Structures are given as structure tokens and as C-alpha cells.
Amino acid sequence: MNHIERYFKTKSNHKFSNILELDPWSFDQLKFGWRYISELKDQEIAIMSYLNKYSYNNTWKSNTPKSTFNPIILPSLLWFHLGQVQLFMSKDALTALNIAYKLELNIQFKKYILATVAFVEKDHNKFELAIKNLTENKRVINTLKNNFDKDYKDIY
After folding, report:
1. Are 152 and 87 spatial neighbours (Cβ–Cβ below 8 Å)?
2. Are the C-beta atoms of residues 49 and 6 closer than 8 Å to each other?
3. pLDDT tens digits, residue range 116-128?
4. Segment 14-54, tens digit of pLDDT
5. d(CA 54, CA 75)
């Protein structure tokens, strides 16, 4: 057991006891959106730990926990969520977001990631190019577009 796993095992709250043993979907998602773990620093550590333990490039290792309900979720989504958590913490998230972009296979989500990167970089041209023909996540994209002068954490 590494120091990060020990950190979660020793948390007094029971929800941390087996967080790293969940399948990818259960680790990342709840019924109405992504799983939130008490504090952003805990969320960041949990995602990094999960990716480190179970993923290589954009595939899951053979020791990744399985579930009977396991829609396809790739490590790229966890990299994107790691970037979002870092943005909420006012940290540099470009590394995580660029890894998510590089690994993502779905062209629509790839455009969404690129639009997020462009928003963080405050690059209007890159943003407009990214959202061209984007059909998913329109509500979030419109919020980013209408608040381009603000920080991500203040508008998401």
C-alpha cells in the first residue's frame, strides 16, 4: 500500500476506505454527475492515485476493478476531471487537460476539452475553432463563451 492509499484508508469518513477499489465508472460518477470527495485536495489526490494505479496511456490495466454496470469510461475522462479540479483550486491544469485531449477518442469530447484549454489560455481564436461544429456540452460552452474574461472556477 503506497502513501496515497494509506491516506485514504486512514480517513475517518468511511467513504474513503475503498475509494480506490471502485470500478472506473463508480469511481468517477454518481447518479447525477461526477463523484465529489469532500475537499478538492482529496479529489485531486484520489484521481491522480486512481490513474497511477490502474491506467497506462488511455487503457485500463488488467487489475482494474470490474463492475456489472460499467459503461465505457476511459482514463482521458479522469484526466479531464483532474484538470477541472485543479482549475477549481486555482492551480495550473494545462498538463492534465492536454493529456486528456491527447488521449480522448471521441471527437466531440475532444473539441470540448480543447475549448476548455482555450478558455484557460484566454485564446479566443482557439476557442472559436474548438466550438465550431460542437454539438455536445452546449450549455457549458455558452457559459464559457459568455464569461471569457472570468476564471473557470467562478463560472462553472
Report:
1. yes
2. no
3. 999 999 999 999 9
4. 445 577 888 888 888 877 777 777 778 888 888 888 888 88
5. 9
Where in the sequence is the domain holding 124, given as residue range(s)?
A: 106-156
The residue type of 21 is E
| 152 lies in the same domain as 85 | no
134 Cβ contact list (under 8 Å, min separation 6) = 108, 111, 112, 115, 141
Exposure of 137 in the CB half-sphere (CA atoms within 13 A) = 20
* C-alpha distance from residue 8 to each of 50, 78, 81, 107, 147 (Å): 12, 18, 19, 35, 36
**List of E strands, 50-100:** 55-56, 59-60
The reported pTM is 0.83
Domain count, the chain: 2
Distance CA 135, CA 71 (A): 21
What are the φ/ψ torsions at residue 26 (nearest 5 degrees)? -65, -35
